[in-house]
Amino acid sequence: MADFTKEIERPLGQSVRASASRPARRFSRGQAAGILGVLAVIGASTLIAFGEKPFRKPVVVATPAPQDVKPAEAVAQTPAAEPKPIPQPKKNDGPQIIRVQPTDTGGQAGIVIQDASAVGQNLSVAHLPDKALIEDGEGGPLPTRSADGRRPFDVYARPWSGTRGARVAIVIGGLAVSQTGTQSAIAKLPGEVTLAFASQGNSIGRWMQEARRRGHEIIMQLPLEPFDYPNVNPGRNTLTVDASEEENLNNLRWVLSRTTNYTAVMNYMGARFSSDPEAFGPVMAELARRGIGYLDDGSSARSVAPDLAKKDGVPLAIADTAIDSVQERGAILKKLDELEATARAKGYAVGTGSAFNVTVDAVVSWVNEAKKRGIEIVPISAVAIDPERK
């Protein structure tokens, strides 16, 4: 015991000379247990010091970063900041104004609409006429340019993507002649299909509202004199070559006053009238003054509509073919396929038809398949040549 005490009291760093005769030191069971306990504590401390979270809390020590450590590595040594939630854009519960031509609105960045036609019109207000585009006429409201120059052709146009891929415009006419046929056509046809209303029809205002609520762009059919008139008669208020300018303009205004919210008129028959520039000239000038477009059904190669529209600045579209001259499903689908080929060749194509059940059903089927092939179905305003559009 005396030797052990002296061992402890000996100054640090001084060794004892080995003695061959001195017996080897032995530890008691208590001493051994104490040593094992100390080792266990040291091992646990080591694991805590070098272990992963959550066993230790990282301590950031402000020391100069070595020259060969990149800033990104230095940042990685610091605790990651709690991610902040990404603010979501607020929804606009009110009506949104959709412009056909892109404008610099200064809106929120990072929001891209790839397909405007999928977004569509604000259907809750599409049937409401813009009061600034209405002139009071003797027979009813007449379309007109607003004081700031806006045209019905622009304001009532259905939006589309604006891309320059293959586009097909389909116009189905004869709406409002048969009430059941009109209801069926409006309900079945996709909103991208343009609807043309017969001026001789009934309840045009009512059907206009229904069509607009469902996203259709609409136009009015204008009865014009054919070559074998009056044996073939487009109906009352037909514009004729022998009538005076005033008579024809009065008949035109009667047609225009039948409803509102349309972008253009198209000829109903009229091979003779559309070939006479003297008779047709004042009519086209009136359309230009009112901001209304014109669709030529393409049935007459003698039509002077292109020359007059260019002269007066009227938006003009010309149909490539009538899709239902033969009222049989297979023949109609073949015509629609021809439209697709034309659109792929020149960028766009226009087809016209009537609201027969077979035509409506064929168009519905073909449109669904054409979209899968990359064809965009667009309103007639999207393919019109517009002298005022830059």
TrEMBL record:
Source organism (scientific name): Mesorhizobium retamae
Protein name: Divergent polysaccharide deacetylase family protein
Region (Disordered) location: 1-24, 68-94
Residue spans crossing the bilayer: 32-51
Bias kind Basic and acidic residues: ranges: 1-10
Key words of the record: Membrane, Transmembrane, Transmembrane helix
Record keyword Membrane present: yes
A UniProt-annotated Pfam family: Polysacc_deac_2
